[in-house]
TrEMBL record:
Pfam families, A to Z: MIF4G, Upf2
Feature: compositional bias, Low complexity: 447-456
MIF4G domain residues: 104-300, 511-700, 715-933
Alphabetical keyword list: Coiled coil, Cytoplasm
Annotated Basic residues bias: 1218-1227
Annotated protein name in UniProt: GM11217
GO molecular function: RNA binding
Gene that produces this protein: Dsec\GM11217
Residue runs in coiled coils: 1165-1195
Length: 1237
C-alpha cells in the first residue's frame, strides 16, 4: 500500500497542467490510481512478449534462408557436374554395341515405354538401355520422349535418361534437337493447343540445355524464339501466363538471374550471399529479365482492367438489385467466374512480382473485399422485400430529403467536435431488444417538461436528472465537460464583444422571430426562417430557447409539425443540440403520459406522437426508439393509447414499413394491432381507425385477373386436343372429336380454331396433332381444309410481320405443315411454294437495301426453312418432286451464303467470324439429312454460279418455245416415261387417303367401344337457299347479257382493207422504158403497181381546189396531169416510190385518182415496205412449219418400221399408257423401308 501511495503521489506531483483532451481522458477514466500500476505492469509484460516473438521470428527467417541457399547451391553444383559430364563424353566403340540385344521386339517395346514415361520407370529403363542396341531407333526414341505427356515431377528423371542416351549414342543430340524444334514450333497467330504440356516441355527443354544434353547455341536460339512468341502473342489476354510463370519459377535463376524478393531481402538483412549460376553471362540474363519485366507491366495493366471490369459488374448488379429486387442466376454465376479469374490472375501477378522484384500496382480499395458471393448474398438479403419506396412521390421525397446546407456559408459556424446524440441504429431491430430497452426505461419516473401543455410546477432547469447506470456515466461526463468548456469560451467572447444594449435588441428580435416562426406554413417560408436563424441567432442560449419554443407549440397546430421538423432538420446540419434536445424532450414527455395512464390531454398526446413521427421521417429520432414507443402503446392498447398508436402509424407508419431495417417489426406491430382489434371489445370509432391506418400502410392486394369462362363443349375440345392428345390415344381422340356436333357453327369454328393452333402444344405432340387432323379428313373434309388454310395463312402472316415474339409460334407452325405433308394432307407443290416464300418474300438481294421483313442480322428464316425441310423433305420420294427440291436447294444455299457474307456478320471481307456457329451447324445438318450426297457450296460466288447454270439449263427451253422470231419449229417435247410415272404416282398418292375405312365403320380396338359407337361420315351440308332479291338479280342479269349478245349478232361485220388495187381506168397512160427500169430498181414495196393511200380516201374535193378534176379546176381531162406526174415519177429514178391518190369528186361523188411520187426514205414509203416484208416472212414461216411437220411424221414412221415387233407396244401414246397400282399409305408416319424397297 505504501508503494502504491508513493507512486501515486509522485505521478500527481510531476503531472503538468491538464489540457482539454487530458481533462476528458481523466473524467472518462475516473482518476483511478490503481490503474497506473496496472498499466506499467501490463506494458512491461507486453515488451517481454514482443521481444520473445521477435527472436523466434528471426530464428525462423534465418533457418528458411539457409535452407534456400543450401538447396540452390546443390542445384547449381549438380547442374555444373552434369553439364561437364555431357560435354566430355567418350562414346563406346562398335564392339560394345555388337554385344547388345538388337531384336526388333524388345526395341519396339522400349520405345513404347518411353511414350508412357514416368519417374518410377527410370531405373528399369536405364537397365534396358545398358542391354539394348538402340542405334537404329534413336529418332523414334527422341520423338517418343518429346511426345510423352509428362508431369513436373518427371522432368529430372527425363534429364537423367536423356543424359545417359547422349553419352551412349553419338547422333542422339542432333535427332533430339530436331524433335524439339518440331514440337516447339509455335506460330504467333495461333493459340496454344495444350498449355499444360507446353509448360512441362518448356521447362524440360531448358533443363536439357543447361545440362548439356542439347547444344547450347541452337538450344538457346530455339528457347528464345519460343519465349518471344509466347510473350508477343500474350500481351492482351495473358492466357499463357502459367507457362511463363512456371518457367520463371524453375529456370529463372539460371536464365534470368531471378531470386525471390523475400529471400533477397532476408539475405541482405542477415548479411548472407545468395549463390548464382554461371551457366549464362550477366548480359544474356539481363536481356531475358528485361523482356520479362515488360511482360509484367502489361500484366499489371491487365490486372487493373480486370479489377475495373469486376467492380463495374458488381456495381451493375447492385443497381439491378436496387431497381428490380433480384438478379438472374446467369449474372450471379458470371460475376463469380469473373471474380475467380481475377483472383487467379492477381495471385499469379503477385508470384511474378515476387520473382522479378517488381512492385505490384496499388489496387482500388473495393477490390480487397470484393467477394461476389458475399456481395450478392448481402444484396439479396437487403432486397428480400423488393423495391421499397418510403415516400410514395417525388414531392414528398424532396420535402423530407432535399434540405439546404449552409455549413460552408455561415460566418459564425464551427463544427462541433463531439455530438451529444448519435442517431446510429442498433445492429438489429428486434422485438426482444425493444422489450429489454422498455423494461429498463419504464422503471424511471420522468416528470413532464415545463414547456408542455400540462403546466408543470417546476421549471425545466430545476428538474432532477434521472440516475443513470455506471456504464452511461463516463460518456456523459466526457461530453458534458467538453461542451461546457466550449460554451463557456463562446459566451465569454460574446460578452466581451457585445454590449448590454445590443443584447437587449437581439433578444427582442429573436422573440419576434419565434412569434413569426409559427406562421411559416410552407416549404419556402420555413427554409427562409431556418436560414435567418443560422445567420443571425445561432447562439447556445438562443438554440436552447428555440428548442423550448418548438416543443411548446400549441396542441391544435398539428398542421405546422412537418414544417417545424424540417426547420429542426436544417438547423441540425449545423448544430446538433437542437434536434437532440427536442427528441429527448419528446421522448420523456411521451413516457410520462404513458406512465400516468390518465384519460386527459388527448390533444397533447396526439401532438407528441405526431411530432415524434415527423422527426423519424427526417432522421432526427431513432427508429429504434420510435418502434419502442409504438410497442409501449400496444402493451396497454385501450382508450387514448389506441388513438395515439393510430396517429403515430398514420404519420410514420408508411415510412417505417418501407425501411428495410424496420419493415419486419412494423409488420409485426401492425398485425398485432389488427389482432387486438378483433380480440378486444372496443368502440366502433377505434376499430375504424385501426382498419384505416392498417390498410393505409398495407393496402390490400389488387384482385387477380379472372380466368376466362368458356362453354363446356369448348373446354371439352381443348381438353382433348391440348391435354389428352398423345401418341398412344390419337385414335381415341379422333373418335371423341367425331362425336361433337360439327353442324353447330360455334362448335365447328372453335374446333377448327383449336386444331389450327399447333403452337399451344408441346413440340413433340405436333405430329400427333397432324395425325389427328389426318384421321378427321375422311369425315370432316371441309373443316380439315379450313385448318390447312389457317396454317398457310399463319405462316404467311408470320413472314409479313417481323416480330421476334412470334418466333416459337412460327417454328411450331412450320413443323405442323411438314407433318401435314407426311400425312398426305397437302401436296409437295404447297411445301415448295412455302419454302420459296420463306427465302424470297420481302427479302432484299441488295446489301445496301435493308428489308424491314428480313433484316440482315435476322437468321430466323433460315431456321424456319431448315425446320420445314427436316420435317418433310426426306419423304419427297418421286423423281419429279426430288428434282424440284434440288432446284430449291440451290436457291436455299444462295440465301444462306447471302446472309453469311453480309457485312453485319463479318469484320473483314472474307471472314464470317461473327456468324452464329449454331446456325451453321443447323444448316449443314439439314442438308445432310435431306441430301447426304448434295454438293454444298463454299461461298456466295459458287451459289450464284449454280443459279446462273440452272437458268442456262432451264430458261433457253422456255425462250425457244415462246420466241415468235424463231423461223423454225422446234421439236415438241413430250413427258418422259419416268416423269409420267412420277406424276402419276404423285397424283395417285395425293388422292389416297389415310388407311381408315371410308364407310365410317372403324375396327374395334378396345373393349370399351361398342359396335353402335361407330358412325358413318356425315353428308355434306346442303347449299344455302337463295333469297328473293338474289333470284331477281340473276334473272335480270341473264336477260341483259342475252339482249346484248343478240344485238351484236345483228351488226354487219366489215372487213378492214389494208390495200386497195388501182382500177384499170387509172392506168390509161403507158409506162416508159425509164419508168419500168426505175420500178424494178426500187425493189420490194412497189410491186409494179401504184397503191392508193387510205388517208386520202375520204378527202372531199372542192371546185376551187387545185387537186380537183384538172389543174385549172374547170373540169377538163386529166391526161396532161397524169402525164406530167408520170414523167415526174420517171425522173425521180430509184429514190422515189409512185402512189395513186383516190379522192371523192364534188360532182356526184365520183371517185377520181391522182398519181404522185414519194421519196423512198419518207415515212409513207418506209411503212409500206415494212408491212410487205412482214407479210412475206410470215408466209415463209408457215411454209417451213408445214414442211417440218411432214418430215417429222415420215421420220417417226421410218423409226417405227425399224423396231422389232415385240417392242412396238411401248410406243403407244401418253393417254393410252396403263395406270400403275397406286400405293396406299400406312397408318401413322410414312414407312421409309416400304417406300424405298
Amino acid at each position: 500500500m505504501l508503494a502504491n501511495d508513493s507512486a501515486t503521489t509522485d505521478s500527481e506531483v510531476s503531472t503538468p497542467p491538464l489540457s482539454r483532451k487530458d481533462l476528458a481522458d481523466d473524467v472518462a477514466e475516473g482518476d483511478n490510481d490503481n490503474d497506473i500500476d496496472t498499466g506499467d505492469t501490463d506494458a512491461n509484460a507486453d515488451e517481454d512478449v514482443d521481444a520473445a516473438a521477435a527472436s523466434a521470428l528471426e530464428a525462423e527467417e534465418r533457418e528458411e534462408l539457409q535452407q534456400f541457399i543450401s538447396e540452390l547451391r546443390d542445384k547449381i553444383e549438380s547442374k555444373r557436374q552434369l553439364r561437364l559430364q555431357n560435354s566430355t563424353i567418350e562414346l563406346p566403340g562398335e564392339e560394345y554395341f555388337a554385344k547388345l540385344d538388337s531384336s526388333l521386339k524388345k526395341n519396339t517395346a522400349f520405345v513404347k515405354k518411353l511414350k508412357l514415361f514416368t519417374a518410377t520407370q527410370l531405373d528399369g529403363l536405364l537397365r534396358e538401355i545398358s542391354a539394348l542396341n538402340l542405334s537404329k531407333y534413336i529418332s523414334e526414341i527422341c520423338a517418343a520422349l518429346v511426345e510423352a505427356k509428362l508431369k513436373m515431377t518427371d522432368v529430372p528423371a527425363v534429364v537423367t535418361l536423356a543424359s545417359r542416351l547422349h553419352c551412349t549414342y553419338a547422333d542422339f543430340d542432333v535427332h533430339f534437337l530436331e524433335a524439339w524444334q518440331k514440337a516447339l514450333n509455335i506460330k504467333a497467330t495461333e493459340k496454344i493447343g495444350n498449355p499444360s504440356k507446353l509448360r512441362v516441355d518448356l521447362r524440360l527443354f531448358a533443363e536439357l540445355i543447361s545440362s548439356g544434353v542439347i547444344q547450347m547455341k541452337p538450344g538457346l536460339a530455339q528457347l528464345g524464339v519460343v519465349l518471344v512468341h509466347l510473350i508477343a502473342m500474350d500481351k492482351d489476354d495473358h492466357s499463357n501466363f502459367s507457362i511463363i510463370l512456371s518457367f520463371c519459377r524453375h529456370c529463372g535463376e539460371e536464365y534470368a538471374g531471378l531470386v525471390p524478393q523475400k529471400m533477397q531481402q532476408l539475405a541482405t538483412k542477415y548479411g548472407m550471399e545468395v549463390p548464382k549460376s554461371d551457366f549464362l553471362t550477366a548480359d544474356k540474363q539481363l536481356n531475358l529479365r528485361t523482356m520479362l519485366k515488360g511482360y509484367f507491366k502489361a500484366l499489371c495493366k491487365h490486372v487493373l482492367a480486370e479489377q475495373a471490369e469486376l467492380m463495374n459488374m458488381t456495381k451493375n448488379i447492385r443497381r439491378t438489385m436496387e431497381c428490380k429486387g433480384e438478379i438472374s442466376t446467369e449474372k450471379r454465376e458470371k460475376c463469380e467466374l469473373m471474380q475467380a479469374g481475377f483472383d487467379k490472375l492477381l495471385a499469379s501477378a503477385q508470384s511474378l512480382s515476387e520473382l522479378l522484384g517488381e512492385p505490384l500496382p496499388e489496387l482500388a480499395k473495393e477490390s480487397e473485399g470484393c467477394n461476389p458471393g458475399i456481395v450478392i448474398d448481402n444484396m439479396l438479403d437487403s432486397a428480400s422485400f423488393g423495391v421499397l419506396d418510403p415516400w410514395g412521390d417525388e414531392e414528398t421525397r424532396a420535402f423530407y430529403t432535399d434540405l439546404p446546407d449552409l455549413r460552408q456559408f455561415l460566418p459564425n459556424f464551427s463544427a462541433p467536435k463531439v455530438d451529444l446524440e448519435t442517431l446510429e441504429e442498433p445492429s438489429e431491430l428486434t422485438e426482444e431488444a425493444i422489450d429489454a430497452n422498455l423494461d429498463a426505461e419504464m422503471d424511471l419516473d420522468d416528470p413532464p417538461s415545463t414547456t408542455s401543455d400540462t403546466t408543470p410546477e417546476n421549471p425545466i432547469e430545476e428538474q432532477p436528472t434521472p440516475v443513470s447506470s455506471a456504464e452511461d456515466l463516463k460518456p456523459q461526463k466526457m461530453g458534458n465537460a467538453l461542451m461546457e468548456l466550449g460554451r463557456q469560451q463562446q459566451q465569454q467572447s460574446q460578452l466581451n464583444q457585445n454590449p448590454t444594449q445590443i443584447q437587449n435588441q437581439m433578444r427582442q428580435q429573436f422573440d419576434g422571430f419565434l412569434v413569426n416562426l409559427f406562421n411559416c406554413v410552407n416549404k419556402e417560408l420555413i427554409d427562409s426562417a431556418a436560414i435567418e436563424f443560422l445567420l443571425n441567432f445561432n447562439t447556445k442560449h438562443q438554440r436552447k430557447k428555440l428548442t423550448r419554443t418548438i416543443f411548446s407549440v400549441q396542441r391544435t397546430r398539428l398542421d405546422i409539425l412537418p414544417y417545424l421538423s424540417r426547420f429542426v432538420a436544417i438547423v441540425h446540419m449545423c448544430n446538433t443540440d437542437v434536434a437532440a434536445d427536442l427528441a429527448e424532450l419528446l421522448r420523456k414527455e411521451f413516457k410520462w403520459h404513458i406512465h400516468k395512464k390518465n384519460q386527459l390531454n388527448i390533444e397533447t398526446k396526439l401532438k407528441i406522437v405526431r411530432f415524434i413521427g415527423e422527426l423519424v421521417k427526417f432522421g432526427l429520432f431513432k427508429k429504434f426508439d420510435a418502434l419502442g414507443c409504438l410497442k409501449m402503446l400496444l402493451r396497454d392498447f385501450q382508450h387514448h393509447q389506441i388513438e395515439m398508436a393510430c396517429a403515430f402509424v398514420e404519420v410514420s407508419g408508411v415510412y417505417l414499413y418501407n425501411c428495410r431495417d424496420a419493415r419486419l417489426l412494423m409488420n409485426v406491430f401492425l398485425d398485432q394491432m389488427l389482432r387486438l382489434k378483433t380480440a378486444t371489445a372496443m368502440d366502433s370509432r377505434h376499430a375504424a381507425q385501426i382498419e384505416s391506418v392498417y390498410y393505409l400502410v398495407k393496402p390490400p392486394e389488387s384482385s387477380k385477373r379472372e380466368a376466362m369462362v368458356r362453354p363446356a363443349m369448348h373446354e371439352y375440345i381443348r381438353y382433348l386436343i391440348f391435354e389428352e392428345l398423345c401418341k398412344q390415344n390419337v385414335d381415341r381422340c379422333i373418335k371423341m372429336l367425331r362425336r361433337i356436333d360439327w353442324q353447330d357453327p360455334e362448335t365447328n369454328c372453335y374446333a377448327i380454331k383449336c386444331l389450327s393452333k399447333a403452337y399451344l402444344l408441346r413440340f413433340q405432340l405436333i405430329r400427333c396433332l397432324a395425325d389427328l387432323v389426318s384421321g378427321l379428313s375422311s369425315y370432316q373434309p371441309r373443316a380439315v381444309t379450313i385448318v390447312i388454310d389457317n396454317v398457310f395463312e399463319d405462316i404467311r402472316a408470320g413472314l409479313e410481320i417481323h416480330s421476334p415474339r412470334m418466333a416459337q409460334r412460327r417454328i411450331a407452325m412450320a413443323k405442323y405443315l411438314g407433318e401435314m405433308y407426311n400425312y398426305k394432307l397437302v401436296e409437295s407443290t404447297n411445301i415448295l411454294n412455302t419454302l420459296y416464300s420463306i427465302i424470297s418474300l420481302g427479302v432484299s438481294n441488295d446489301q445496301n437495301v435493308i428489308s424491314p421483313l428480313d433484316p440482315p442480322d435476322s437468321l430466323f428464316r433460315l431456321k424456319l426453312a431448315c425446320m420445314l425441310l427436316d420435317t418433310c423433305a426426306p419423304y419427297f420420294t418421286s423423281q419429279a418432286t426430288r428434282k424440284k427440291l434440288d432446284y430449291f436447294l440451290v436457291f436455299f444455299q444462295h440465301y444462306y451464303w447471302f446472309k453469311k457474307s453480309h457485312p453485319v456478320f463479318s469484320k473483314t471481307e472474307n471472314t464470317s467470324d461473327l456468324f452464329p456457329i449454331l446456325m451453321d451447324h443447323t444448316y449443314r445438318d439439314c442438308l445432310l439429312n435431306v441430301r447426304p450426297k448434295l454438293k454444298i457450296y463454299k461461298s456466295l460466288e459458287q451459289a450464284k454460279a449454280a443459279i446462273d447454270h440452272l437458268q442456262e439449263k432451264l430458261y433457253p427451253q422456255l425462250k425457244t418455245t415462246n420466241n415468235p422470231q424463231d423461223p423454225s419449229l422446234g421439236t415438241i417435247s413430250e413427258i418422259s416415261e419416268i416423269d409420267e410415272g412420277a406424276t402419276d404416282e404423285d397424283s395417285g398418292s395425293s388422292n389416297d387417303q389415310r388407311e381408315r375405312q371410308m364407310s365410317g365403320q372403324e375396327p374395334d380396338q378396345s373393349n370399351e367401344w361398342t359396335e353402335n359407337e361407330a358412325e358413318p361420315p356425315l353428308p355434306p351440308p346442303p347449299p344455302p337457299e337463295k333469297s328473293k332479291e338474289d333470284l331477281e338479280f340473276e334473272h335480270l342479269y341473264d336477260k341483259m347479257t342475252t339482249d346484248s349478245y343478240q344485238e351484236r349478232l345483228k351488226e354487219p361485220i366489215k372487213a378492214t382493207a389494208k390495200d386497195i388495187p388501182v382500177p384499170m381506168m387509172a392506168r390509161l397512160q403507158k409506162k416508159s422504158y425509164d419508168q419500168i427500169t426505175g420500178a424494178q430498181t426500187i425493189g420490194p414495196g412497189t410491186n409494179n403497181t401504184p397503191q392508193i393511200s387510205k388517208a386520202a380516201a375520204n378527202q372531199d374535193g372542192t371546185p376551187g381546189s387545185p387537186g380537183a378534176d384538172s389543174p385549172d379546176g374547170n373540169g377538163k381531162s386529166s391526161d396532161g396531169a397524169g402525164g406530167s406526174d408520170a414523167g415526174a415519177s420517171g425522173a425521180s429514178g430509184p429514190t422515189s416510190v409512185p402512189f395513186v391518190l383516190m379522192v371523192r369528186g364534188h360532182k356526184g361523188g365520183k371517185q377520181q385518182f391522182k398519181s404522185f411520187v414519194a421519196p423512198s426514205d419518207s415515212h409513207l414509203a418506209t411503212n409500206l415496205m415494212r408491212q410487205e416484208q412482214m407479210l412475206r416472212e410470215e408466209k415463209e414461216k408457215v411454209k417451213r412449219l408445214t414442211l417440218n411437220i411432214t418430215e417429222r411424221i415420215e421420220e417417226e414412221d421410218y423409226q417405227e418400221s425399224l423396231m422389232p415387233p415385240q417392242h412396238r407396244n411401248f410406243t403407244q401414246s401418253y393417254y393410252q399408257k396403263p395406270s400403275k397400282h397406286k400405293f396406299k399409305h400406312q397408318k401413322g408416319a410414312p414407312d421409309a423401308d416400304l417406300i424405298f424397297h
